[in-house]
Design goal:
about 200 residues, Rossmann fold, 6 strands, globular
Amino acid sequence: MKIAVVNLKGGAGKTATAVHLAAGLHASGEGVVLVDADPQGSALGWTEAAESDWLTVGLPSKTIHQQAARLTANTEHLVIDTPPGDLGVVTSALRAADLIVIPVQPTGTDLSQFAETVQLVEDVQAMTDAKAVVLLTRVVKRTIAADAVREALEPFGVPVLDAVVPQSQSIAMAHGRPVTDLGAYVDVLNELRKVAAA
């Protein structure tokens, strides 16, 4: 799988999602390269601090799609963490992907900025065979927010994964630490495998 984790809005959970997906693929014994396409270098800094033993490269470039084959020459999977707002870099990441994951928090701010991300994804999908899904992140348990967001997202036509990432201190505090507990990302990764295979 070549997975681009994309949302033009910042703070949606892209880096946590990308790192946890890479950790899950690696834990399954599969080769993975994590590309940090954000100039802030959060994913790269995280995996360096955690001394992760999969390859992470910083590549905040509009040429990711041109380098994807080289990056995956000796591995099964590519996971790309994208920056907020940089259309050139994000578009390149989308063009490199066969699976696009759009993390969204169940908040009004995330919903109000969702249309711009979906429009970019649809523009790239017109040129590729990539599948796109929405992943709800930072979902507060026992609230109706997730259901309300699912309903609000229906008109966009992008499937929302059944698996959600709950609001969790362990995820919020994980930055820079080895990912030893995938938590909800186990279910997310299992569902993404099914989407990719369909």
